[in-house]
């Protein structure tokens, strides 16, 4: 049976440090928020207003937390992974939605009771105050984002449209901060509460601006990325080769991805997350995309020499997180791109098994490259085809055990659609694969 080496134990410890730091941040800030609520400078007008204040305090903190989750902080992203951060971002977003519903509802109920008015009559009464009106507008923007994030609506929107709608999060934050500064009683209680909220918002907004604006601008100015070649892989799949200056300084790893823009060819707000489909060699980068949305379909028409603006590298689906000697690489559809790069990575040593799920062999992107790499690395490659049905469940517990009997003693890397990721995760848990050995990224990225 394989055992983890001390060096690899230290690597898994990097994730533990990130989790502990995040939990400590949550607990410390929640304690501060609870103390603010328990010891207000001015008492609430009535019980309903007090409940509204309670929800408002937590809403302010959760909004700041949401900014940190989308700031792409390297400390968290490299240790925890974009997939988990995106999942937390989603649930935090819905928490914000319900707090946005509850906070103004109870506040208006409290004021309606105080003014002896109906709930509906109190709405225009409060909306006449500018800070309150800004808070209402921010709440409306939150509702729009929540509505477009529901799975039914999400399936009907193109990725580009969904991403553009979610850019209103920045306007929402500005309005919410103004509302809190001028209207929030907890914010204005005393010098200590003001110092806390200003520090929290400065940290969250500063992290967002640094991770999403300043660092990408500096990196792209330094590396000057350009399209070097566009290679069709099939009727609906294309690879784009990118070159630039000092690419070895990017510290990109096989299994990671970038957010890609092509200024001049696409609009500035059209950005897509595509994985590296080849292990980075310090001289060039390669992305491979399937024509699903407007941007990915237009990659075939990219002229050589087109400027490239890339944010990254991101993702923890790398050999750096290994804990065991043996490895299983699982891919579904275009999710083969980071898996193919990992198979090429010399840092991924030991016995390797590749499970590639595709509808047919003709749909298996980069299959010839995979076969060549598998032969070179001495890896076993299994192409799992056919329509999923009761009779064909390639990632059921029984099938995974049959394909890889010692899977519980291996690291498992997986990239593919969310339903497939969920099926694989259920089977891995049933087979006793520990969480530290599961490295999964699904197609559910956030803004």
UniProtKB/TrEMBL annotation:
Superkingdom of this protein's organism: Bacteria
All residue ranges annotated as the FAD-binding FR-type domain in the record: 220-320
Cofactor: FAD
Topology versus the membrane: Multi-pass membrane protein
Pfam family, one: NAD_binding_1
Transmembrane segments: 17-38, 50-70, 91-112, 132-152, 164-182, 194-215
Name listed for the protein in its UniProt record: Oxidoreductase
Native species: Mangrovihabitans endophyticus
Lineage summary: Bacteria, Bacillati, Actinomycetota, Actinomycetes, Micromonosporales
């Amino acid at each position: 049976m394989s055992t983890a080496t001390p060096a690899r134990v230290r690597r898994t410890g990097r994730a533990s440090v990130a989790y502990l730091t995040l939990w400590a941040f949550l607990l410390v800030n929640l304690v501060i928020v609870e103390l603010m609520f328990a010891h207000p400078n001015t008492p609430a007008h009535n019980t309903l207003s007090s409940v509204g204040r309670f929800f408002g305090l937590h809403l302010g903190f959760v909004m700041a937390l949401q900014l940190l989750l989308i700031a792409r902080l390297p400390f968290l992203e490299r240790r925890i992974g974009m997939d988990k951060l995106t999942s937390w971002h989603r649930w935090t977003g819905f928490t914000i939605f319900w707090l946005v519903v509850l906070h103004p509802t109870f506040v208006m109920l409290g004021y309606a009771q105080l003014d002896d008015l109906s709930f509906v009559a109190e709405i225009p009464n409060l909306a006449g105050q500018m800070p309150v009106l800004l808070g209402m507008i921010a709440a409306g923007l939150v509702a729009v984002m929540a509505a477009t994030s529901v799975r039914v609506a999400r399936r009907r929107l193109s990725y580009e449209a969904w991403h553009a709608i979610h850019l209103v999060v920045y306007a929402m934050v500005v309005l919410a901060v103004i509302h809190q500064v001028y209207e929030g009683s907890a914010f204005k209680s005393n010098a200590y509460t003001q110092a806390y909220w200003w520090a929290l918002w400065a940290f969250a907004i500063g992290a967002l601006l640094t991770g999403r604006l300043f660092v990408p601008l500096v990196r792209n100015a330094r590396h000057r990325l350009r399209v070097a070649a566009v290679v069709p892989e099939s009727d609906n799949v294309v690879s784009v080769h990118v070159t630039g200056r000092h690419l070895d300084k990017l510290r990109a790893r096989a299994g990671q991805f970038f957010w890609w823009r092509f200024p001049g060819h696409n609009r500035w707000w059209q950005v897509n997350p595509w994985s590296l489909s080849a292990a980075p060699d310090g001289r060039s980068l390669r992305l491979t995309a399937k024509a699903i949305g407007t941007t990915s379909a237009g990659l075939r028409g990219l002229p050589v020499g087109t400027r490239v603006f890339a944010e990254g590298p991101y993702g923890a689906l790398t050999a750096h997180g290994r804990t065991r000697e043996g490895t299983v690489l699982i891919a579904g559809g275009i999710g083969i791109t980071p898996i193919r790069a990992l198979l090429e990575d010399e840092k991924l040593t030991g016995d390797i098994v590749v499970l590639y799920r595709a509808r047919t062999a003709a749909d298996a992107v980069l299959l010839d490259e995979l076969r060549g790499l598998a032969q070179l690395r001495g890896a076993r490659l299994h192409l799992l085809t056919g329509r999923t049905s009761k009779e064909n469940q390639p990632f059921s517990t029984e099938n995974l055990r049959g394909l890889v009997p010692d899977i519980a003693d291996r690291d498992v890397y997986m990239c593919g659609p969310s339903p497939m990721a969920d099926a694989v995760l259920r089977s891995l848990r049933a087979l006793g694969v520990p969480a530290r050995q599961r490295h999964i990224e699904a197609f559910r990225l956030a803004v």
